[in-house]
C-alpha cells in the first residue's frame, strides 16, 4: 500500500489529499500541518478581520472530513526535515514518518520589515485565521493606522481599516499602488477607492522604523523622508517568505520557491510540490512562473495528486488564474500574469473603469480589469488558445469586446 504524505493543509495540500483518495482508494494518506485547525477559506479571513463575517462560514473542513475519507490529519505538527534517501519526514516532536510519495504544500509566511520594532505589539501581518482574529480584535479598538506594502494584501489591510473605522495612512514606496501592474491612470481609481473608505495613500514613502510607547505598543511609523505618522495599529504586507527551511539538505532545486515542472514534480524522485510555494513551468506562458492565488493553488494540488497516483506523468498543469478585490464600490480583477510580458495596451473608460492587457510574443499573458469585469472570460479564452492578438489591441479595448471582430488566426505559428 502506497503511503502519501502531504505537508501543509492549505487549499493545495487539502485538494491533493481529496484527489489522492479518489485516485487511490486503498492508499494510506497523511496530512501534516503546523496550524491548529483544518482547512479554512484563507480568502475570507479578511472579511472576518473587517468585522463582517463570523468564524463558522470560513471553515471548510471539520476534522470529521478527514476521518470520513480515512485521511490521517496531524494538527499542530511542524515538519523540521525531509530525508529523501531514507524517505522520511521529521517533525518537531521527534517523529519520523516514512513516505512513498511526498507533497510539499507549505506556502509562505509574511515577510517582516527589516526595521526597528517591526515585531512590536500592534504591528500585524496577515496570513492565518489566527492572524485575522488578532487583527479584528485590535482593529475594533484602534483609532489611527499605518499600512505598508502596496500590493494585493496591503489593500486588504486598507479595507480592514476602512471597515473598522480606523483612519489610516497607506505608506507606499513608489508613486502608486501595485506599480508593476497598474499605470497611474488605473492606480488613481484604486487610490480614490481607498480615500472613500478613509485611507490616505502616501507616495514615495515607506517605513524607516516604528516607534513604541513605554509598554512596547506601536505609536508611530517614521518614513525614510523623516515624516512621522502617529498610529496605534499597523498592517505590514510586503510579501511572502516561502516555507522551505525544513528542506535544507534535501537537494530540492529552489529559485525563490520550489522549482517544479508542469506535472508538479521537483527534481528529487517522488517529491512533488504545489500551491504558492512553487515556481512552476507555465505551459501557456512558456516559462517558469509563480502565482499566489487560491484557484491556482487548488488546481496545482489536484494535478500533483493525479500525477503522484499515476505510474507515469499523466496530467499537466494548465491554468489561467484570477484574483479579485471586492472592497470598493467598483470590482477589481487581475488575471494571468499582469506584471509580465513585453508589451501592453490599456484604456480608461470612466472614473471607475479601466483595463490593461499584457502581451508576450503577441499573446495575452495577463491583465487587470477595474470597474467592468465582463471581458474576463474572453481574454482567458484567448490566453488558453494562445492566439496572437496584440496587433489588434483596439478590438480588445472596445468597451464591449466581440471576439468575432478579431481577424482569423490562419498562418499563426
Ligand atoms: C488575507 C488574504 C487574502 C487573500 N485573498 C485572496 C483572494 O482574494 N484571491 C485569491 O485568489 N487568493 C487570495 N489569497 C491568497 C490565497 O489564499 C493563497 O494563494 C492560497 O491560500 C495558497 O494556498 P497554499 O495551499 O499554497 O498555501 P497556504 O494556504 O499558505 O498553506 C500552507 C500551509 O502549510 C503550513 N506549513 C508551512 N510550513 C509547514 C511546516 N514546516 N510543517 C507543517 N506545516 C507547515 C502552513 O501553516 C499552512 O497552513 C489571500 C491570502 C490572504 C492571506
TrEMBL record:
UniProt-listed InterPro entries: FAD-bd_OxRdtase, FAD/NAD-bd_sf, FAD/NAD-binding_dom, FAD/NAD-linked_Rdtase_dimer_sf, Rubredoxin_C
Record keyword Chaperone present: no
Entry GO MF terms: oxidoreductase activity
CC cofactor: FAD
Pfam families named in the record: Pyr_redox_2 (PF07992), Rubredoxin_C (PF18267)
Superkingdom, taxonomy of origin: Archaea
Coiled-coil segments: none
Residue ranges occupied by any NADH-rubredoxin oxidoreductase C-terminal domain in the UniProt entry: 334-386
Record protein name field: FAD-dependent oxidoreductase
Species of provenance: Natronorubrum halalkaliphilum
